[in-house]
Each structure stands twice: as structure tokens, then as C-alpha cells.
Amino acid sequence: MVLAGRLRVYLIALWIVGSGSNIVNAAGPVAETSTATIVENVSYQNITALPWREADHRFNYGPQSLQFGGLWLPESASADNPAPLVIFVHGGCWLSAYDIRHSYPLSTALADSGFAVWSIEYRRSGDPGGGWPGSLEDVIAGISHIRQLQDFSVDLERVVLTGHSAGGHLALLAAQHNDLPSLDAVVGLAAITDISEYALGDNGCQKAAAGFMGGSSLQAPAAYEQAQISVDKLPSTVSLLHGEQDSIVPLTQSDGFEHHRLPRAGHFDWLHPQTPAYRLLINRLEHYLPEHTP
């Protein structure tokens, strides 16, 4: 499966996690994609500078403006050759400042690698109805919406749910619900699993946890208990991928789960198609979503 094509560059202006700095919004022309350079421990700016293309389809899974998802399809997908589906939940510290657009390069790359991608937008802290538990409710509804994709070249019998950072937290929480469509696996990318511990930290994303939860663990103990990931409640096939150079989500967040820690990989490497982390993600997806045999 080849990563190729002419794609549009979009630079997203967002506050960079923990730094408090800002970038100017900009949009660039169509650019050639290159996979020659292998990079590690990439920055958020590296991610937002990547080329991407618009989703092939966009659907609302609820009545609110942020309750939608984008469907990317690989060129190889057809009625006779439906593509396996990757459901993706973007991160961004649960904050409204970080929307789905920074994950467009990943969705583009995964589609170019042969996967259909259903990437979910949801209400976040700062959005009406966002925060706890609205964000999780949106993600669950967004995942359930894949049942409406049966008319597209998508194989709904080969599905992996994945999420990055705070999106990994929401994806794992959603996977604990029994009424979701059938999943072959759940893959967390630098996922937050213990929000009570995470909220005690002092980086920008850790400080955002209390705002998402509506208070500290002392102020809202029942909510924090509901927002914890329990390995006993998860499907049997769960894998957490974590970079050893991650400065935003501590490695301890993957303790107690089946995990793979990648040396020299940082927090955002999972979103960049020119990193060893992305290669590992593709390897895991191909393992969980093998091609059909005659």
C-alpha cells in the first residue's frame, strides 16, 4: 500500500500544548507528498504543516454542528473490494481549541495506505455540551454511526477503533460500552488511561483535565471514577502504542495494559506518516485488519 498523491497543505493556528504560544493561520497550495525522510519526535507544528486532502464524505451523527465525521476512502476501495475501516478520535487535551483538522494529514495518509477512515469530530471543553460527559457521549454516537456507512465501499466486518492522546482516552472509554458495533481491536496512541493521576500533573494538557471533568478528583470523585479506563471492561484485543520521548502523556499511562513503547518517538509521531511510529501503527492495523483471503 503506497502513500502518494497531490495533497493540499493547511497550517492550523492552535495553541501548542504546554507552551502557550500561537501560530498564524495560513493555507497553502497543493503540494507533493514525500516519504523519503524519516523523522522522529516531531512537533505539533510539523503535524499541522503536513499535506492533506478533504474527506470524501461528511456526515452528521447528531443535530449539533460539531457532531459530524469525515469519511476518507482509498482509491482501491470498491463494492467488490471494500476497505477495512479505521475509526479515529482526535486528541487535543479535550479542548475546543483543538479541532479535527490537525488529524486530516493522518486520515489522508491512512486512506493512501489502503484503509477507509471514519474520523469523528465531537464537542469539547469550551463548546456548549462539551466536557464531561458530553464529549464521551458524542464519541459513542459517532462510533455507532458507522452502521450508516453500509452503502459505501467499507468493510464493516473489519473495524479498528483508535484515538490519540485525549482522543485515545475517549476511544478507550467508548470501547467499554457494550452497545457499540463490533470491533476487531482498539489501539490507543499515546492514550490517557488514568485521568485521576493525569490531572495531578502540571503540563498544559494535564491542567486541562480538571476543566474537562468539571473539577478536581476531590471535587468530582464520581465523575473521575466513571472516566477511568478499566482493563477488565475493555474488549479482549487492546494495544497501547507510546513513544518513549512523549513529554505530554507519561509512559505510566500505558502501565497495566498490553503496550508497545517506541524509542525516540514523541507524542505527535503517531500522526506523522514519515515516522517509525506511523510505520508501527500501520503494522498493527494490518495485523488486526488482514486482507480477505479467497
Automatic annotation (TrEMBL):
Any one GO molecular function term: hydrolase activity
Pfam families: BD-FAE
Keyword Signal in record: yes
Domain BD-FAE-like positions: 78-258
Signal peptide interval: 1-26
Transmembrane segments: none
Domain of life per record: Bacteria
Gene3D superfamilies, alphabetized: alpha/beta hydrolase
The entry's keywords: Hydrolase, Signal
Protein's recorded name: BD-FAE-like domain-containing protein
Organism: Lacimicrobium alkaliphilum
